[in-house]
Amino acid sequence: ITIYLRVSKTVALKVKKSDSIGNVKALLCDKEGVPEHLQHLFSEDNRLMDEQKLVDYGIRKNSTVYAYVEDSVPVMLYVKRTYAKVIESRVGQSMDDMDLFLGKQKLEDLKELYQYDIKEDSLLQGVPRVIQIVIRKSNGQEITLDVHQHELIKNVKGMIQNKLGIPVHLQGLLFAGKSLADSWDLASYDIENDSTLHLNDRN
């Protein structure tokens, strides 16, 4: 079958209905050079998970899948020695909230670089780490969002509007009893993976 993958243009990919979303990302990477870990695929407002198959989402011949690609340029890291603690970022950015990749392979935090056979002059890629937060309405309804820790609150409200249809200017977000300011980011409030934000709908 053929499905159409829309990035900034429409790309046709030859796939099987039994192919996983991860396989689709690999095909897009091979065809357009978009790294798999920077791709977020959607169909009818559903985010497509790597381990699921196209058929699981009802994707058929000539379906259109939407691809969101991280718009920030990944930080490129130059390895001076073979231990993670001496990695130097060329832009001086903290590595605490980033994932490291060697090609397509994600590096685990608790391993040292030599365990991946990384040598001097190796080039790694740093990508902002994605966390999941819970948004809870006053009626108990909950949704989850995949975000970066440095996502601005106003951008989180935009995601909520896309999912729940509540205009941004009618949303109030609270965490740990504090009202969240639009111009601040999640990290400023120590919001981490699995944190719950409370949503006041001012309708």
From TrEMBL:
Keyword terms: Isopeptide bond, Ubl conjugation
Short name of one Pfam family: ubiquitin
Domain Ubiquitin-like, first and last residues per copy: 1-70, 131-203
GO MF term (any one): mRNA binding
PANTHER family: UBIQUITIN
This protein's name: Polyubiquitin-like
Organism the protein comes from: Nicotiana sylvestris (Wood tobacco)
Gene: LOC104229995
